[in-house]
Amino acid sequence: RGPQQGCTDVLCCVLFIIVILGYVALGTVAWIHGDPKKVIYPTDSSGQFCGQKGTPNAKKTILFYFNILKCASPAVLINLQCPTTQMCVPKCPDRFATYTDMQLQYRFNRSHWDYYKQFCKPGFNNPKKNVMQGSFLSYVASPLASCGSSAVLHRCFPDFITRNGTLTVGNKTAFKDALDTARSVTELRDAANAITGILDAKQLGMRIVEDYTKSWYWIVMGLVLALVISLIFILLLRFTAGFLLGFVIIAVILLVAYGIWHCYWEFTLLRESPGADVTISHIGFQRDFNIYLQLSQTWLIFLVSLSLTEASIVLILIFLRKRVRIAIALLKEGSRAIGYIMSALFYPVITFVLLAVCISYWAVTAVFLASSGEAVYKVMSSQTNCKYANLTCSLETFNSTNITKECPGSQCLFAFYGGESVYHRSILLLQLANLLIFLWLVNFTLALGQCTMAGAFASYYWAKRKPADIPPCPVFSSFSRALRYHTGSLAFGSLLLAFVQLIRIVLEYLDHKLKGAHNVFARFLLCCLKCCFWCLERFIRFMNRNAYIMIAIYGRNFCTSARDAFFLLMRNVVRVAVLDKVTDFLLFLGKLLIAGSVGVIAFFFFTHKIAIIQEEVPVLNNYWVPLLTVVFGAYLIAHGFFSVYAMCVDTLLLCFCEDLERNDGTPAKPFLMSPGLHGILGGIEQSPKKSRA
């Protein structure tokens, strides 16, 4: 029953190779034009990075805003840049002082000017100069040279203090700027919020990176623990499948029950504490997710979710108990197959490495593309009627133009990174291409693994004498065969899935943008499209998986294999429809048990509840960052091992259906299934058999 030896879907194979070469070229171009420092370091009004080594700003790592009140302007949302002079400084101001205050103090003590001038642009050396005329306004830190500020994300922001319910800065609630205009602290806060609103995501990202830096060792330890538990579980499943799966079912039920009890205990405890009436809607979005855990409503949501999960698991086990017993027996048969092909258990490592390469290349390319823009400068003017405001300008030639004459006090300031060339205008399309090719490569990697596993387990099934007729190195042989002859077919199926996934991502993006819209019809239509494409993706995944099995068995092209697999499953729908999902459900419980067990241990560790090693626990901004990483990583590791079992069962089921249609059990056409598999599946009712030519 060896597959046909011939290349399939050659055109798609050629296209796939060309796309990979183009992807390498795209990454090279992005690497040449991109500069990640544009994302990491703040940039002053001259387009220079703060804190970059080898520049005059090497020791000036913090960005200072001259007139932070202008950051409340709508231009902040348009250009993502505050329309005021910005300069790099070694440290933020530590006292409140406007230019007017400095001039008053200068008459009695010149040290005030010595402090103030470090926040003025180079070239401004006259503290007696009247800047209200506008010609020198861009040289001094107009309203707030120093307002008792601190560095947040390498930027100076005012330190707001609430005293007896009143918002203050430097013990003041109001002040006058350099133009002698009365200002309130509330205006200052609104301006600061305009900037911090843009930087919230970056601040959260930096906190997450900081937590990863402190806890990476323990995260690795948690993932190693998950790896060891998964490996032990798989080895025990080989010898004690029935007992172990029964233990998994009981353990998951007890684990979820413990989660229900813990959530109920936290809920009742917080309901009796002060402030129990505060809900999630009252506090809104918070960067510190630990705040949500102090709300009883959060634990109520967890309690309801776990209760529904527990009820679903129990009902499935009750109503599908016969299918569960058959699925356990089928997994026992799969354990025998894996026992003869133990190397299959280690193939997920190859898939993991390939996926890591794909994800890393995509992420690096995306960052370099995002930072590929050139510095763009625009005219910033304090006058509302300046016709040149927000127009592109050149830093070198700006002073020689008539703009400064027609709009006194206007400046040519750095606005953002962009460009007018074809490359810069195409960055969005290049990012979409980067995403599409990334999805294609990821799906191809998974498809290669599925076809490899299917070919190995099909060689076990079709062997007349087991294990004598199983070819040597079945996993390596299947891998080389899939890569040599069926790259085009695997790429074809992967491309179909990648297109659907890209459309789903675009729909999710549109849905996020339309959340504040009041067009009910548009929201309804978008919701319907999301549902349809979700169903389409699930169907394509299912068909691709079975098509790869048929490709591994017969060596035909993708379309023919997908058609044969579909009609074969339809003719045996009673046998495989429920049984396949019940088997997946049992394997899912195993993955849930491993991830949940490791997650519980990680939870007690990162919340300082294990007394023996309490001193070793790092102090974190959010303990959920390493906790979720450990849980998600443990699930992926368990999924990698259990995917071998899932592919084994799917291959055995499809081969069993094909065996029943090709053979009749007579000496001339004997069944190639094992007696155990025939006993498991042979008695299940099926639709009338239609033999194929």
From TrEMBL:
Role this protein plays: Choline transporter. Choline/H+ antiporter.
Broad class of the protein's primary localization: membrane
Keyword tRNA processing among record annotations: no
Source organism (scientific name): Electrophorus electricus
Keyword Glycoprotein (UniProt): yes
Cell compartments where the protein resides: Cell membrane
GO cellular component, one term: plasma membrane
Keywords: Antiport, Cell membrane, Glycoprotein, Membrane, Transmembrane, Transmembrane helix, Transport
Family assignment from sequence similarity: Belongs to the CTL (choline transporter-like) family.
Pfam families associated with the record: Choline_transpo
Protein name: Choline transporter-like protein
GO molecular function: antiporter activity
InterPro entries: Choline_transptr-like
